[in-house]
Design a protein that fits this description.
- The protein is α/β, with parallel strands linked by helices.
- It has a single domain, classed as NAD(P)-binding Rossmann-like Domain (Rossmann fold), CATH 3.40.50.
- 38% of the residues lie in helices and 19% in strands.
- The strands form five sheets. A seven-stranded parallel sheet has the order 3-2-1-4-5-10-14, sandwiched between helices.
- Helix 1 packs across helix 7 and helix 9 (285-296) packs across helix 11 (335-348).
- It is globular, with a radius of gyration of 19 Å.
- The N and C termini lie far apart (40 Å).
- The chain binds nicotinamide-adenine-dinucleotide.
- The site of nicotinamide-adenine-dinucleotide (NAD) has 27 residues, from helix 1, helix 3, strand 5 and strand 11.
């Protein structure tokens, strides 16, 4: 698997996903030089530096917004682009500058680095490239503890299996989604014009240990942490009933996919995949609460706020059919396992994580 890789750069490599991919790649291919670059903007990313060092991953403190921060290397085979401001709320009520500069301009700098080195790239995009109004117009049914996708739909690319790559792409999608989609557009040009092997993974919710969850990003970690440390939570929007649904993919399953992709970059070149936990691993907030109660043996108060949050959607479930077919991959770890792993990690590192996850 990916044995011919000499040097790999993981941008955002001290983040939740970047660190797991960097460490997993190094463990799988010990001969490969793996470099993690990160500006440590995300609170808690610094806690990953010890893990990276112990795992044999080199760390470079750098910012993808600054092309001069990207390392000059004799050889670079693959860039895994995981750096981003990953919040769908980024820019609401404030400046769009950071999210545009990091997610889009930073991605262009990574593409340029790939072009100069003739390197391959795996780009971590998002399900949020699909526009808000289109996602909100998916026909839903209301079941006791969750929304469900109705059997009959007027839009293409949506079925009981979830959202596929042919779901419509026209409309506003948040600055987060727009910067990722703009980067995807440029990626298609770099693939075509410069013959680069680039794969785009449009990820749904990814979760697991070492996710520094906060209110606007990393919901599974945040929800589990509240159950461990105590405190309160709120079901926000959609009548405050907690019926909104997301599928969740364990970060270990994403690593398994990325390892498969690294071994087949030429074959997969130019592919765009929806990647997520899929319908079997989808949970509503009410069901997430239940999983957290089971994993921590704790019940906490949960309030209701009926006002919908900006950028929110009632449901997102990934249809993995294309990526399963192309990469012979599917998720292995259930939502229950994700929450159990998160709870174990927080209990094991309770004091260290307290200022981050219980701030
Ligand atoms: N976690 C998810 O559920 C999810 C879902 C879909 C897509 N993604 C994408 O996956 C990638 C990784 O997300 P994550 O969950 O690990 O988030 P994360 O915040 O944990 O990791 C991102 C890392 O990028 C770093 N960073 C931010 N701006 C930077 C810059 N300008 N230069 C260098 N480093 C910078 C941060 O310090 C952080 O360590 C992102 O591109 C995100 O959009 C994540």
């Amino acid at each position: 698997m990916a044995t011919s890789l000499n040097t790999v750069l993981v941008t955002g490599g001290a983040g939740f996903i970047g660190a797991r991919l960097a460490l997993g790649l190094k463990e799988t291919c010990p001969e490969t030089r793996v470099i993690a670059l990160d500006n440590l903007k995300r609170r808690g990313s610094g806690l990953n530096l010890g893990r990276l060092r112990r795992g044999g991953v080199e760390f470079v403190h750098g910012d993808v917004r600054m092309p001069e921060d990207l390392p000059v290397l004799d050889r670079l085979d693959l860039i895994i682009e995981c750096s981003a401001e990953p919040s769908v709320l980024a820019g609401y009520g404030g400046s769009p500058r950071y999210v545009i500069d990091s997610n889009l301009v930073g991605a262009v700098h990574c593409l340029e680095l790939a072009r100069r080195n003739n390197a391959a790239m795996i780009f971590l995009s998002t399900s949020r490239v699909y526009p808000l109004e289109k996602l909100r117009s998916i026909a839903l049914e209301e079941a006791p503890g969750r929304f469900e996708i109705a059997p009959t739909q007027s839009l293409p690319g949506i079925s009981r299996a979830g959202i596929a790559e042919d779901f419509p792409l026209d409309g506003a999608r948040s600055l987060y989604g727009a910067t990722k989609y703009a980067a995807e557009t440029l990626i298609a040009e770099y693939v075509d014009m410069y013959d680069l092997d680039i794969v785009v993974n449009r990820c749904g919710v990814i979760a697991g240990p070492w996710q520094m969850g906060r209110v606007d990003q990393g919901i599974a970690a945040l929800w589990t942490a509240r159950h461990v440390y105590g405190g309160a939570l709120t079901y926000i929007g959609y009548q405050g009933t907690g019926k909104q649904v997301r599928d969740m993919l364990h970060v270990d399953d994403l690593l398994a996919l990325v390892l498969r992709q690294t071994a087949a970059m030429a074959e997969l070149r130019g592919s765009v995949f929806n990647v997520g936990g899929g319908a079997e691993n989808s949970v509503s907030l009410v069901e997430l609460t239940e999983l957290c109660c089971q994993a921590t043996n704790t019940v906490i108060p949960i309030g209701a706020d009926t006002e919908n949050r900006q950028g929110d959607i009632p449901l997102y479930i990934t249809d993995n059919a294309r990526v399963t077919e192309a990469c012979d991959w599917q998720p292995e770890k259930s939502a229950a396992v994700i929450i159990e792993d998160l709870a174990r990690w927080i209990y094991d590192n309770r004091d260290m994580l307290q200022p981050i996850l219980n701030a």
